[in-house]
Every structure is written in structure tokens, then in C-alpha cells.
Write a structure and sequence with these properties.
Radius of gyration of chain A: 26 Å
Number of strands of chain A: 12
Structural class of chain A: alpha/beta
Strand content of chain A: 5-15%
Distance between the termini of chain A: 72 Å
Oligomer: homodimer
Order of helices and strands of chain A: HHHHEHEHEHEEHEHEHEHEHEHEEH
Strand order of the largest sheet of chain A: 2-1-3-4-5-11
Shape of chain A: elongated
Largest interface: A-B, 47 and 47 residues
Helix content of chain A: 40-55%
Chain lengths: 344, 344
DNA sequence: CTGAAAGCGCTTACAG
DNA sequence: CTGAAAGCGCTTACAG
């Protein structure tokens, strides 16, 4: 391993001068800088980050909290995986590395201790464990944080515009002539906006068309995976067999719901129309006709990295940044004839 | 931030003594150790890894090379995502953190430079870029490496027993009475064993039953995603419409292949039987009847972490470790009546 | 524009 | 069993 002292010896300059040349700061003659840079290159010099981190207190490490209790897919989660691919790329371009924070590290240190241990400079909270009490402390722990799925006091959230998407779903159903429309949700948790917001927007959308949303038409599934969607749809449909359409908060649930509907002999969209959420490729192959919403994972990741880098630089972020989700209309919504006659 | 000097002041011992107590090494009276540990706990002391790394040359960091040019799914790759979930858990239990190695870090340092920069202690090569020349240098770079998909000179490979799986596929088809069986492969690359080995085993399996494999029955798709499977199946089937079965090297390709077959009016398995590979959940929802092989991601990850930790400790690893892939028989293979009559 | 000194927080021999 | 000294590789004021 070659150090700045080796470079100092070779070039005849002092270590601090080598340091300045390498880092491009301080006043140095161009000539000095050039010779030092050339020597470094020739010697194949690579800085030692541990030493840098120790003296500067800057580790160039971004901690990532990624737990996936809800879907149990970890890296393979339909939103989180793609988001991380992009986020990783963005921060690497800025000279940072990803460091996964963990609770079972070194027999159970907290996230924050893990951060201190590694001098982590910023935290991306992709998704925490439900109701983790440590989340509340993150906003004031002194380390810049950005969240991409959960609302945490004092932490900037970059999330899809779920309400608008909900409205769009209502609009799509309404314009196709549906009036009895179910809502299949997921556990409503205060800090996890996705399900609640999609419902809010959906309800507001219906009301804007003069349709009151009947609470009986709403069913919240017990979890986020397809089995729960199956059970939820069963409960909903047995209670309200008159619905002609259902908006489901995510595609996994929609897949389970459709499975149930198909099993009892219903066809989609002829008997019942469905709109999902996520544009989940794992569902899409099975249900290529499913209309859904695509969360802009690249955009969310890019904004999240910008906000975080900005906060590290001392510039505060807004409390929440919304990213539009794109409606992807395929063929799971039946258009009623009378509507077509109305000129649609 | 509280340091060992603070602890030293508080307890009246010297910094080295604090260090020994904290790390459990060196000779210390139990009493001293206890008081120091208690003081550390009360003060909420967390070690500083940068300082530790600088003085010990041990970063407790495992570099990960994860590129996914083949499937373009990154973290969402059917094998790699799950493998990483488990690998991450394993090494965290051992006090290590994951560090993704990247070529576009800090305007383009090599993987090895990235490792030196961070003092990475070991490298997990989940999947490299095809024909990356840097791979050849990894085996002799001085940093312990383990690979989970690619053969690299001097690097321990932990991979599925693809040949046995290929034989099992041949057996399954043969026992069901098939004799004209196609093989749908992927680009054969020398260092990437999956496709070649599955083919080898498959061919050997057929031959063990006295069936010569007709080279015309083999078609290698241009890539690993479903569109390539569609095209590959088309080419194969147009050339050999007499096949009654096809073994496909991965489920994504199998999905594309089935899509083609369905489109031209064939039914599966009545007209043509299919066996895939990967037990890819994203395909499974669409084709729940697909018989396939499940790679034991947890086992591969666990063995890879063991090998790597072992190498870091100075114990050499075997050149290759094989992990059985489990055949999952569902309903995509037709059993011919005459076979049943033969007593199967 | 360049360098000597001190420090970041920890550990490793080496004394005692 | 415990501590004084030196060092890991880098950077930050501060002189000059």
C-alpha cells in the first residue's frame, strides 16, 4: 500500500502538500499539483478512506434502512429493489457508498449506533419495520435522513403522489360507467401513507363525480401479499356482490383478488373490473391486462439522493416531495356501452 | 462522540486497558474488565470503525460485485436478490457490513481500487459484467474472493449443481415417455457455467437412457430475458416441429417460450411439455404449472459467507462447492399413456 | 505557495 | 495485570 508519505518522498514535497494536490484544495502552484498528480497516478496511489474518515469525520457512507416485513421480498420488493438500483448509482457518482443498516449487527446495535460506528453521513430510509420506535428518534439524531415510504417526524419524505393516483383510478372507473366500486386496501398505518392516501384520493375522486363512497365497499386486507388479497376480495365480494369494479392498493393484492374472482367463475373485466398499483412485473406476466399505476422509482431515487446530498451539505430539504405515479391503462376495466354512447 | 479516552478518564485506567477490555483480548483482571464494560455501557460508547480500521487494517467490510447485464434486474434478479438477502444477514451476524463495489465510483475506479480505498476484507462476486477483464485479476489480488455464478481462476465458486439438475430434467422427460426433446439455452460463455452445465447434464442424461441428443434440437437464445425465449422457441419449433418437450435453462426464457407456443395454438403440456429453471416467482404467478428447478439461494449464500469468512481467517476454500438444485415437479410435463402402461 | 506540528480514535508491541 | 510510547494515513489550522 502506497501512502502520501511515499509520494512526498518521491516528489520532494511534504505530506500536507500532497494532500492538497490530491484533494484540489488549498493554494498550490499548478506545476506542483501536476507533478504530484502525475506521481500519484504512476505509483497507482489510492487514498485510504479509513484515514480520511478519521481525520475529516466524513466517511462518504450513506446508510440504508431496508426492512421488508410487509411483502417479505427484501431486495426483490417491486418498489424498493428498483429504487435502490438507481439510488446506488446516483450516490456512487457523487463518491458515496451504500451501507446497509441493521439491527442484528454485532449482536444487536441500534441503527443509530451502527451509523456512529461507521460514521455514516446520511440515511436513506427505504422502508423500516412497522412501528419501530427507533424511527421517531431518527429525525433528531443529527444525521441527515430521507425516507421513501414512511412519514417520520423531521425526515424529508419522497413519495408517490398517492392521492392523485387514487383520484385517477376513480376517474377511470367513473368514465367507464362504473358506479358501484369497491376498494381493497391494506393495513392502514398512520406513518405509512400508501394505503391511506390512495384511499383518500379514490374517495375524493368518486365524490367529485357525485358518487358517495359506501364504507361497506371498503375492505382492508391483512397484509400486502397475494394470499391476503385473495381473502380480502372474498370478504368484500361476499358482502357486496353488486360491485362491478374494485381498486386495489397494490398489484400483489390485486393478483390474489383476481385469483379469487376467477375461481368463483367471474371474468375480468366482463364481470368485474380491476385497477391495481405498482406495475409489479411479477404480477404483470400473470395478468398482462391489469391496469395499474407505475411508481416512478428512478425519479424517487434520484430526488431522494439529491435531497440527502443536499442535507449533508447543510441545505435543508422540504418536508415532503411528491412524485407522480403514472396510470397505465391496459384491459382490466370494462367500458359500459351506455357510456360509449355518451360520446366517450 | 465519546472515545476510549473519555472512558479512561472516567475509570482511571489507561486507553490501552480500555481497548483490551472492550475487545476481550489481552490479560485483564475480571474486575477491571467489568468496571470498564459497565462504564462503556453507561456512557453509551460506540467504537469508531474508521479508527479501528486504520490501526488494525481490518475494515470489517465485504465488497459485493453485483452487475446484472444478463437479466437487467439488479437487486430484483430471481437468484441474486434472494441470495443477497441471506448473505447480508449472515455476514452481519459476524460483524461485517456489505459494500457494493462499483466501476463508476469516483469517476471510474476499478473494483480493486475501490476495495483498497475502503480496505475491503473480502469480495463476494455475485455476478460480474460479461467478459470483464478485471475478473481475471481478482484471484490474485490478495483479497479473499468467493463467486456465486461465475468461474474465475483462483476464486472459490459456490454454485448450483447444474449438471445433476440437467440429468434430472432428462430423466423427468424420459420417464414420462418423451423422446424428442428440445433444449432452449442461453449464450454459452466459458466462465459462466449455468447454461453450459445444464446442457451437459441434460445431454448426458438423455444418453444414459439410450437417447442420442440431436444437435438440431438445441437452440441458444440471444439473452436471458423472456423476449429472447420467445424468439428462441420460435426458431427451435419452426426447425423441429416434432419435439414434444423442451428443457429451458431459465424460467424467464421458459415464459417467453410458452408465450410463443400458446400464441401458435399449442397447449402445455398436451402438445408440448416444458421444464424451466429458477423457480422464478415472477414467472410462477403467470405459469403456476411450470415444473422447474429451485436454486437453493439460502444455502448458496450461507456457504458463500462461510467460505469467505474462512478465507479471511486464512483458511483456503475449495475451488468449487456445489449446491443441489431441487426439482419442483408441477404440471407442465405430459405423461404418455404407453409409459403408464409400462408400469410407471 | 509550502511545510512543521498536532490530532482524528484506536491498537500493538514492549516494559514493568 | 496495567500503562507509556509510537503508529495507522490522512487533514487542519497555523507559520513562514
Amino acid at each position: 500500500m502506497i501512502t502520501i508519505y511515499d509520494l512526498a518522498k518521491q516528489t520532494g514535497f511534504s505530506a500536507p502538500t500532497i494532500s492538497k494536490a490530491l484533494n484540489g484544495n488549498g493554494k498550490l502552484s499548478d506545476e506542483t499539483r501536476q507533478t504530484i498528480l502525475a506521481a500519484a497516478k504512476e505509483a497507482g496511489y489510492t487514498a485510504n478512506m479509513a484515514a480520511k474518515a478519521l481525520s475529516t469525520k466524513h466517511s462518504r457512507l450513506i446508510g440504508v434502512i431496508l426492512e421488508d416485513v410487509a411483502m417479505r421480498r427484501g431486495f426483490e420488493h417491486p418498489l424498493f429493489g428498483g429504487l435502490l438500483n438507481k439510488f446506488r448509482h446516483e450516490i456512487e457518482m457523487a463518491g458515496y457508498d451504500l451501507l446497509f443498516l441493521s439491527k442484528h449487527f454485532n449482536d444487536g446495535m441500534s441503527y443509530i449506533d451502527h451509523c456512529r460506528y461507521r460514521d455514516v453521513e446520511g440515511i436513506l430510509i427505504v422502508n423500516p419495520i412497522d412501528d419501530d420506535p427507533e424511527m421517531k428518534t431518527l429525525g433528531s439524531c443529527g444525521i441527515p435522513c430521507v425516507s421513501t415510504n414512511e412519514f417520520i417526524p423531521g425526515v424529508c419524505a419522497v413519495v408517490s403522489d398517492n392521492e392523485s393516483a387514487g383520484k385517477t383510478a376513480a376517474q377511470a372507473f367513473f368514465e367507464a360507467g362504473h358506479t358501484k366500486i369497491g376498494f381493497l386496501g391494506a393495513p392502514f398505518r398512520e406513518n405509512s401513507p400508501a394505503a391511506i392516501e390512495r384511499f383518500k384520493g379514490f374517495k375524493a375522486g368518486l365524490e367529485s363525480y357525485g358518487l358517495d363512497f359506501d364504507e361497506r365497499y371498503m375492505e382492508n386486507c391483512a397484509a400486502w401479499w397475494d394470499g391476503a388479497g385473495y381473502d380480502g376480495m372474498k370478504a368484500l365480494y361476499e358482502r357486496c356482490p353488486d360491485i362491478t369494479a374494485v381498486f386495489v392498493v397494490c398489484d400483489s393484492l390485486a393478483f390474489g383478488a383476481m385469483k379469487y374472482l376467477l375461481e368463483i367463475g367471474k371474468s375480468i373485466p366482463d364481470d368485474i373490473s380491476v385497477i391495481g398499483f405498482d406495475d409489479d412485473t411479477s404480477v404483470l406476466k400473470a395478468a398482462p391486462m391489469l391496469s395499474t399505476f407505475r411508481q416512478d422509482r428512478d425519479k424517487i431515487a434520484q430526488l431522494a439522493s439529491e435531497m440527502l446530498l443536499q442535507e449533508i451539505a447543510g441545505i435543508p430539504s422540504p418536508e415532503v416531495v411528491r412524485v407522480p405515479a403514472q396510470f397505465i391503462s391496459r384491459n382490466s376495466v370494462r367500458r359500459f356501452a351506455r357510456v360509449l354512447q355518451m360520446g366517450y
